[in-house]
Specification:
Chain lengths: 409, 238
């Protein structure tokens, strides 16, 4: 008997019991739909995390100065200025995997333009900062080394800050702002970067050279860094090695004996990003495996109905055997019926799951990605469910004795 | 006369039920020549159905040898037996055994579907021809429940014929029919015999057995008598 003949016979048999076939398929539909919805929304969440970290900058370490424990009062990292400018230079010069080193000195201050004022976060840093965070200017330029060394009164603005001070869409390059009564020239406007992971507006910021920050905003040049250091490495793989090397270097420079705690801390953002990605992956896997359980339940539903069908159609099986159907032909017929049921369920579930996740993602503002791999896995898996749970009833049918089957009432 | 079509040599069939061996048949020995119309008679439980199932390759003997057209059937696998039934044998049953909710022509096509590599168009043409031969040319697309008992049995005979078998087995073919229709059905079997097909009937009615050219009576699993006779012509009496 030909393959198409087998499929035709299976379809005819299934259409004879439309309602039953539909209800049988429902289990697979729900299973496949939920697996597709879970994985595609999980993939969307993973992309979201990836984008967020990409906007923060990749291949990045943050070094915070030490914790203080003076007079019994213990404060967290950053409360004690233990990092020096010399430390920063040493890291740049002697750790080979480090490509960029940028200080971050932070303060909230009021900026005043000719027409408006706006309080925002001022960061004192250098040109490396923008390399680490992969942040380009929309117009103007970044800091020149001369401006850093000479504590030039120049500022780079984020989009939001520029809009508040000069009006929406105005190019601020060449204009003047005053920060704590010191006039600065705006030399660059940063391209828009959107929200940070914590929900803050990345574009509501202003940047000045670190030296200028110390001299004009923070009140005097010091040899310690009253903020943090950002370190950029050549590639994500380098971050772990760089972290180890920087730790060793700083412990040596700070003369910390063996067994004592560091007086600084290093945060590895690449590791954090990886950890977060792993978390979303794990969560997706968990959700998908819960959904897969319903696929299993759907498979058992198919087996149940196929067993009922074999019993009901015992005489039909007997007739087919009497006129010359081989046991293999009977096996194929019932197996194909089970596979047709489960694959039809899989396709329907794919439509519902794909549509559902698209709709949910849109209404929550997430991205949802239905990957081709997920589609193929869902279809393949439902076909496998059909084979797996159809085999037992089909074998039962093929092993019937034609004489007994013909006598069955 | 050439070599016999069927050679039954010391054939027994023993069923095992809860460790108990029940001898349903045998040992029996006989030959059937091509073109015979053989009636197997006997009371219920005599073993006549067991004998027909063995001859029809639906079952295999426990011991002894059954040769069909020179080939030993006892050692064939279920799949090989299915192929032999499909190509060389046709079956007609007391309860017709048509597929419900399936049209007459689709029922008749069934053996050809399992024959394989036969184009659908030829299959349909042969099924139509078989039904027309049974006088059912107008009923091709009727389902069994829309047909009378006699018409259903004609569909079943068409199904048995469509594969051009050498032997047709009929198990109580008139058991569910009134006497007038029974005569018509028996006339069809005599026609088939005239066209060269060997017919083997199982019946407990002497009137039906009278249409056969030979009668074997089975009693308690053994052959009680084996008689060659002049068959009565089945003509529909007014």
């Amino acid at each position: 008997m030909s393959f198409f003949e087998t499929i035709r016979i299976a379809l005819l048999a299934l259409l004879r019991n439309k309602l039953r076939s539909l209800l049988t398929v429902l289990g697979i539909v729900i299973g496949v739909a939920s697996v597709i919805a879970m994985t595609s929304m999980g993939e969307g969440a993973r992309l979201q995390v990836e984008q967020t970290f990409a906007s923060m900058g990749t291949n990045m370490l943050v070094i915070l100065p030490g914790a203080s424990s003076m007079g019994g009062a213990r404060s967290g990292f950053g409360s004690q200025p233990t990092l020096t400018w010399a430390d920063a230079d040493a890291i740049r010069v002697s750790v080979p995997s480090v490509r960029f080193v940028a200080p971050q000195l932070r303060s909230v201050a009021q900026l005043v333009s000719e027409e408006q004022n706006w309080s925002t976060q001022i960061t004192g840093t250098n040109a490396d900062f923008f390399d680490i965070r992969a942040w380009a200017v929309e117009s103007g330029r970044l800091f020149e080394p001369m401006e850093i060394d000479g504590a030039a009164r120049v500022a780079i603005l984020g989009r939001t800050t520029a809009d508040k001070l000069f009006g929406p869409g105005v190019d601020p390059v060449g204009r003047r702002v005053r920060i704590q009564n010191v006039p600065f020239e705006v030399i660059g406007l940063l391209e828009q970067k959107g929200q940070s992971m914590g929900g803050q507006d990345n574009d509501d910021a202003a940047y000045v050279p670190a030296t200028t920050f110390q001299a004009r905003i923070d009140g005097g040049i010091q040899h310690t860094i009253a903020g943090s250091l950002m370190v950029g490495t050549a590639s994500p793989e380098d971050t772990t090695r760089a972290e180890r090397q920087i730790r060793a270097l700083l412990r040596e420079r700070h003369r910390i004996p063996e067994g004592r705690d560091d007086d600084f801390s290093i945060r590895n953002l690449t590791q954090m990003a990886d950890a977060m990605q792993d978390t979303t992956k794990t969560l997706t896997l968990l959700l998908a495996s819960i959904a897969a359980v319903s696929l299993l339940v759907g498979g058992i539903g198919i087996m149940n109905i196929m067993l009922v069908s074999v019993t009901e159609r015992t005489r039909e099986i007997g007739i087919r055997m009497a006129v010359g159907a081989t046991p293999a032909a009977i096996l194929a017929q019932f197996l194909v019926e089970a596979i047709v049921l489960s694959v039809a369920g899989g396709l329907l579930g794919l439509l519902i799951g794909g549509g559902g996740s698209f709709w949910i993602a849109r209404s929550f503002g997430w991205s949802s990605v239905v990957g081709l791999d997920v589609v193929l896995i869902a279809i393949g898996f439902s076909a496998a469910v059909g084979v797996g749970f159809g085999l037992f009833p089909a074998r039962k049918a093929s092993r019937l004795d034609p004489i007994e089957a013909l006598r069955f009432e | 006369m050439g070599a016999p079509l069927i050679v039954v040599d010391e054939v027994s069939r023993i069923f095992r039920l809860d460790g108990l061996a029940i001898r349903a048949l045998g040992p029996v020995s006989f030959n059937v020549t091509e073109g015979e119309m053989l009636a197997i008679m006997g009371p219920s439980g005599s073993g006549k159905s067991t004998l027909m199932n063995l001859l029809g390759c639906l079952d295999r003997p426990t011991s002894g040898s059954y040769r069909l057209a020179g080939e030993e059937m006892g050692s064939k696998s279920p799949a090989e037996l299915a192929g032999i039934r499909n190509r060389h044998l046709g079956f007609v049953f007391q309860s017709f055994q048509l597929l419900p909710r399936t049209t007459a022509i689709e029922n008749v096509e069934l053996p050809l579907i399992y024959r394989g590599n036969l184009p659908a168009r030829e299959r349909v043409a042969r099924a139509r021809a078989a039904l027309e031969r049974m006088g059912l040319g107008e009923r091709l697309h009727h389902q069994p429940k829309q047909l009378s008992g006699g018409q259903q049995q004609r569909v079943a005979i068409a199904r048995a014929l469509v594969g051009e078998p050498r032997i047709i087995f009929a198990d109580e073919p008139t058991g569910a029919l009134d006497s007038k229709t029974s005569v018509e059905i028996m006339a069809l079997f005599q026609e088939l015999r005239a066209s060269g097909i060997t017919v083997i009937l199982v019946t407990h009615e002497p009137e039906v057995a009278a249409y056969a050219s030979r009668v074997i009576v089975v009693r308690d699993g053994l052959i009680a008598s084996d008689t060659i006779q002049e068959p009565v012509a089945a003509e529909a009496s007014a």
